[in-house]
Amino acid sequence: MADDEKANGKLLMLRLGDANDPEVFETACGIKDKNFTINNETVDRSLPNYDDPSAPLSYSGGYGLRTISVSGSGFAVSKPWYNRIARLAVEQSAANAQIIVPYLATFTGTVLITSLDISGPAAGDMEFSIDLTMSGDITSEWEEGA
Questions:
Q1: Cα separation, 112 vs 132, whole angstroms
Q2: Looking at residue 81, which CATH number applies to its domain?
Q3: Best label site of 44, 87, 115, 144, fewest CB within 10 Å?
């Protein structure tokens, strides 16, 4: 898949790492019909006023759990990538990955495939629907101007 497809905003890209040091990421699939979600839960840190217990309690919150997830449909770039993606799902294995969101950023971290559905017509290309969630520390490299 060419970089111009990413630049044109057509595909969200999933790149999987090779687990070597230094790690090299290769494009595994393009996701064309996609949902990209950043979900930040808040944590209630409110405390009563100890000097005046009858005073109204005001909400004091902060960020808690952050999740980044992707769902959508697309295609793997080759048979070995279909195989690797399916094995990760079946074996419930995590992989280091990069999720490239056109015009936004590249997110790097550990990915868990929570759902995978492969389908296609008898005389056509195989496609898949995938749901995945990033886990652990997630870094982001923001695109210029984003």
A1: 5
A2: 2.30.110
A3: 144
* Structural domain of 135: 3-43+61-141
Q: Do the beta carbons of residue 109 and residue 134 sit within 8 Å?
A: yes
Question: How far is it, in rounded angstroms, from Cα 49 to Cα 47?
Answer: 7
The tens digit of pLDDT for each residue in 78-96 reads 889 999 999 999 999 999 9
Which H or E element spans position 5?
A: helix 3-7
pTM of the model: 0.83
Bridge partner list, 118: 128
Per the structure, the count of domains in the chain is 1
- Asked if the peptide bond before residue 22 counts as cis, ω within 30 degrees of 0, the response is yes
51 part of a folded domain: no
Separation of alpha carbons 133 and 51, rounded Å: 45
